[in-house]
Design a protein that fits this description.
Blueprint (H helix, E strand, L loop, with lengths): L1 H4 L5 E5 L2 H13 L6 E5 L2 H5 L8 H4 L3 E6 L13 H8 L5 H11 E12 L3 H10 L3 E9 L6 E9 L6 E6 L1 E3 L2 E2 L1 H7 L7
Parallel strand pairs: 1-2, 3-4, 5-7
Antiparallel strand pairs: 4-6, 5-6, 8-9
Length: 193
């Protein structure tokens, strides 16, 4: 999707799960943009490991103009009555602290870091990003329908402090009745949209 919407010369992806990595690699190879796509079979921690030599840190870290992450998180129906246990399990695979720290190291000076997270984690994520001097550029609250609660936050950060654009995206007005805004956003990726 990124390759389809941008002229980026190189797009790197990370996938820790073996089966998902193999599927991503197959999809990349079958893509019209395959010369620009590469998938690393690694977790973020492995990707961030520094080679053990005398190279300076600035030469070690690849800088990216755009970083997009849909970090793993458990859905509400997975939650138990033990809130501490839920919180620990929520971020087992990729703690938000690790994600923000990595984004800070990997993001170019004028780059944008975008993430999708549960809405209830938005304030904490904004505070973490602020600690690394990553400031919200845009905040989109996503609702399934006009009458449901906000479920997700789409956050875009930059290194420039500014007043963020805050808006809302409603996906459906009724089952399979998509809003014009959602259709406009996703139409390039769905055959029947």
């Amino acid at each position: 999707m990124i390759a389809q919407r941008t002229t980026a010369e190189q797009i790197d992806a990370l996938e820790i799960d073996e089966e998902a990595y193999e599927q991503a690699t197959d999809n990349f190879e079958a893509s019209p943009w395959n010369d620009r796509l590469f998938c690393f079979h690694a977790g973020l921690d492995e990707f961030m490991e520094e080679p053990e030599d005398d190279t300076s840190e600035s030469e070690l870290v690849q800088q990216y103009d755009l970083i997009i992450s849909n970090p793993p998180f458990y859905t509400e129906d997975y939650k138990t009555e033990d809130s501490q246990r839920d919180l620990a399990r929520f971020e087992d695979a990729l703690p938000f602290e690790d994600l923000v720290e990595a984004a800070d190291l990997l993001l170019s000076e004028n780059g944008i870091f975008s993430v999708i997270i549960p809405y209830k984690e938005e304030a904490r994520f904004l505070a973490l990003a602020n600690d690394f001097e990553l400031y919200p550029l845009k905040i989109t609250h996503v609702k399934g329908t006009p009458t449901t609660e906000i479920k997700r936050s789409l956050l875009a950060f930059s290194r420039t402090h500014q007043t963020p654009l805050i808006d809302e995206l409603i996906i459906e007005t009724a089952r399979h009745q998509y809003t014009p805004e959602y259709i406009e956003l996703t139409k390039d990726f769905y055959l029947k949209m």
